[in-house]
């Protein structure tokens, strides 16, 4: 926890703004300004600011920094994020002017949605607090001496869009000498309720900008791929002409914009729509500030006399640095890796989300399933720590967790469940492995204990019956029963907590949760084992996922493991590697196969071109991962995104050690079931290829690093800083996938 008792200025707002639970309000975004004097002798200046829901900061006519959609949302009743800006270069001796624009964001959801954010207990009008320091001395803070005006932003809502009337612009409003005498003074207002904490994760930024050329008809522009962000328009025309921008991820067969599957959860206002009214002065350039959309296509309609010169797509997301890259000899896998990264960036805009268009919600299971992909590809640990605090702040005293974070109250009694809630355990575990930092484990340890107490109160003979189960299977009538997947995660969480207790030196808890885990395992086997290694409820439904669940969580007794694996292989071959599972099975099955020496079979699911299969999405023309195997519903979800982590773990071979966590030690155990793979993670490099029957690998270990290389023939090599090459003979006979690649090479 950082700076929990810090104070900036007073919290201020525009007078006369609606304060309660009003929806569909059309109020101009407020602007605040203040002139002040700076002496000649200062060396360093900084501003500390929080503006809710979103803000933009200006000094002497210039926007400060390149943050967008700031601050990151939180449970505002508990904590609020503020940012620190070095403003030395923006200040000048003598008279200066600071300005702030506020948007509604997550703090003031002013349109109705499925999840009742519009009735969130924290909701209020936009407000801000600010402090300016020169050489550590406070010289300006927010109070009633600030003046408040109305910006040209006439409407803004996170899940709807932004309207802007350029005729209302006020040139020079944040520069010296602007006449604000008709502006009322700011109103001092109650704080949001939570403690101020400095935002430590990277901010949201515009990640990439590229031209979206027009399609052949219907005034539709194509960004070329699915993304999160908005359009920037270059237009010219008469004052009062209006450009209406609508966004979607697909087109109808006729080429028109289609919002099918997207707009069903927003119950008021226009969905994913921006509006711009021209002021009539040459080429005008505009983009929204306080909203973002999920889209590939932009429909641009003109009312009045105007011409669109150009439309650019602006990709927006949390500006994480790259941590890893992977490229293989298989073009399908490379395409799926690209689609996964597109989905991940689209679904990390301040917080991790499920989709960037219809929901923008931090569904906990989506976070859990994609966390390792995020940590292998990006330096995302600080973001995840921040999001975990949101989840922890929302936990009820009973231990119950919501299905999404943040939430205004939705998701405690539907949508949550052990497979979703397990992120409270798995994410601190993943963070510890990837960074060596046990801070998240320590911070959420008591919350984990409360959650397992809650599960114990809900269990019958150690079996849990609540939760969504293996969400989004290809056939909903054959979904694996939730009692299997929920109990599997109940066991896994008890094992995690026993491990955490050991790490923290809490022997009593270690014993307690080890005993609990053993009891759950015995109950699971008694209730769901069908004989021959198969698991299920005895009705033949969901046994593929159920058996994968049992193996993945370590619930199969040693004597039954061979039969369980044999059942998975036979089922996969019988169905021609159809992805006969939902989001949970999509992690279980490929990992279980790889862990048991059959990574070649796991690849069959990934590269399957028919429905249901990952590669089927490629043939549908998708550039991101889908929500449904058949390509309906959302086409930009991250919940099937473990495929990238699988590639790093089993093709690249990167494994973390609980005993030596973090970036200074890796076990590298590549599985050569394709012909070549080059992967890099935190400056560890694994670059291998198959030449005939010889496996050759180049390994680079960064300065200060160490590791262990396990070759395909079982030989083991201690690694230290530097580069080295290793070779061994491999047996290609077991792998049809590898044999086909090898034949091409020879």
Automatic annotation (TrEMBL):
GO terms for molecular function: alpha-L-rhamnosidase activity. It comes from Victivallis lenta. Residues 322-650 form the Alpha-L-rhamnosidase six-hairpin glycosidase domain. It comes from the Bacteria. This is alpha-L-rhamnosidase. Residues 219-303 form the Alpha-L-rhamnosidase concanavalin-like domain. Its EC number is 3.2.1.40. It catalyses: Hydrolysis of terminal non-reducing alpha-L-rhamnose residues in alpha-L-rhamnosides. InterPro entries: 6-hairpin_glycosidase_sf (IPR008928), 6hp_glycosidase-like_sf (IPR012341), Alpha_rhamnosid (IPR016007), Bac_rhamnosid6H (IPR035396), Bac_rhamnosid_N (IPR013737), Galactose-bd-like_sf (IPR008979), Rhamnosid_concanavalin (IPR008902). Pfam families: Bac_rhamnosid (PF05592), Bac_rhamnosid6H (PF17389), Bac_rhamnosid_N (PF08531). Coiled coil: none annotated. Residues 43-207 form the Bacterial alpha-L-rhamnosidase N-terminal domain. It is an enzyme of class 3 (hydrolase). GO terms for biological process: carbohydrate metabolic process.
């Amino acid at each position: 926890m950082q700076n929990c008792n810090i104070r900036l200025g007073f919290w201020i707002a525009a007078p006369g703004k609606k304060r309660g639970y009003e929806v569909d309000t059309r109020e101009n975004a407020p602007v605040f300004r203040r002139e002040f004097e700076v002496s000649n002798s200062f060396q360093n200046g900084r501003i500390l600011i929080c503006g809710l829901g979103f803000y933009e900061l200006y000094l002497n006519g210039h926007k400060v920094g390149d943050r967008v959609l700031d601050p990151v949302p939180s449970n505002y009743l508990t904590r609020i994020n503020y940012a620190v800006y070095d403003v030395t270069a923006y200040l000048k001796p003598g008279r200066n002017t600071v300005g702030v624009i506020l948007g509604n964001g997550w703090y003031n959801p002013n349109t109705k949605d499925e999840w009742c954010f519009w009735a969130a207990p924290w909701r209020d009008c936009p407000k801000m607090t600010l402090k300016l320091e020169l050489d550590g001395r406070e010289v300006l803070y927010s109070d009633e001496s600030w003046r408040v005006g109305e910006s040209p932003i006439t409407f803004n809502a996170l899940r709807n869009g932004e309207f802007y009337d350029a005729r209302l612009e006020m040139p020079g409003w944040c520069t010296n000498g602007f006449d604000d005498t008709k502006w009322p003074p700011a109103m001092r207002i109650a704080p949001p309720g939570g403690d101020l904490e400095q935002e430590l994760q990277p901010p949201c930024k515009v990640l990439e900008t590229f031209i979206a050329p027009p399609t052949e008809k219907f005034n539709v522009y194509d960004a070329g791929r699915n993304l999160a962000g908005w359009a920037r328009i270059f237009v010219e025309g008469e004052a009062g002409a209006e450009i209406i921008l609508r966004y979607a991820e697909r087109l109808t067969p006729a080429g028109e914009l289609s919002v099918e599957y997207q707009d069903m959860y927003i119950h008021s206002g226009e969905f994913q729509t921006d509006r711009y009214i021209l002021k009539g002065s040459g080429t005008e350039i505009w983009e929204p500030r306080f909203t973002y959309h999920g889209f590939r296509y932009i429909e641009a309609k003109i009312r009045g006399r105007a011409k669109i010169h150009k439309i650019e797509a602006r990709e927006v997301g949390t500006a994480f640095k790259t941590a890893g890259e992977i490229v293989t000899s298989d073009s399908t896998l490379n395409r799926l890796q690209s689609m996964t990264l597109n989905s991940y960036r689209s679904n990390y805009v301040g917080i991790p989300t499920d989709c960037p268009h219809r929901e923008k919600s931090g569904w906990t299971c989506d976070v859990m399933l994609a966390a390792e992909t995020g940590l292998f590809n990006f330096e995302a640990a600080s973001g995840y720590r921040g999001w975990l605090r949101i989840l922890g702040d929302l936990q009820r005293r009973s231990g119950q967790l919501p299905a999404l974070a943040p939430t205004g109250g939705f998701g405690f009694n539907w949508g949550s469940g052990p497979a979703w809630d397990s992120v409270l355990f798995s994410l601190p575990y993943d963070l510890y492995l990837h960074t060596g930092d046990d801070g998240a484990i320590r911070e959420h340890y008591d919350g984990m204990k409360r959650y397992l107490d809650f599960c114990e109160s809900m269990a019958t003979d150690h079996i849990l019956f609540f939760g969504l189960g293996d969400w989004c299977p290809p056939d909903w009538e054959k979904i694996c029963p939730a009692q299997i997947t929920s109990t599997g995660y109940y066991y896994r969480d008890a094992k995690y907590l026993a491990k955490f207790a050991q790490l923290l030196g809490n022997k009593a808890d270690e014993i307690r949760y080890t005993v609990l885990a053993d009891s759950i395992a015995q109950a699971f086997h008694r209730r769901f084992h069908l004989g021959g290694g198969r698991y299920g409820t005895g009705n033949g439904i969901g046994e593929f996922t159920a058996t994968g669940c049992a193996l993945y969580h370590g619930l199969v007794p040693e004597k039954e493991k061979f039969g369980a694996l044999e059942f998975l292989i036979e089922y996969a071959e019988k169905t021609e590697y159809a992805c006969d599972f939902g989001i949970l099975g999509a992690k279980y099955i490929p990992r279980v196969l790889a862990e048991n020496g059959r990574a070649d079979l796991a690849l069959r699911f990934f590269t399957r071109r028919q429905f249901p299969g990952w590669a089927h999405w490629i043939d549908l023309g998708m550039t991101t991962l889908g929500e449904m195997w058949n390509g309906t519903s959302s086409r930009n979800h991250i919940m099937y995104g473990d495929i990238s982590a699988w590639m790093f773990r089993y093709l690249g071979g990167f494994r973390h050690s609980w005993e030596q966590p973090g970036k200074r030690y890796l076990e590298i155990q590549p599985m050569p079931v394709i012909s070549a793979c080059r992967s890099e993670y935190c400056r560890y490099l694994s670059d291998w290829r198959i030449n005939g029957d010889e496996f050759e690998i180049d390994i680079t270990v960064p300065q200060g690093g160490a590791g262990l290389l396990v070759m395909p023939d079982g030989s083991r090599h201690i690694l230290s800083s530097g580069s080295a090459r290793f070779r061994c003979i491999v047996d290609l006979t077991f792998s049809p996938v590898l044999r086909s690649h090898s034949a091409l090479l020879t």
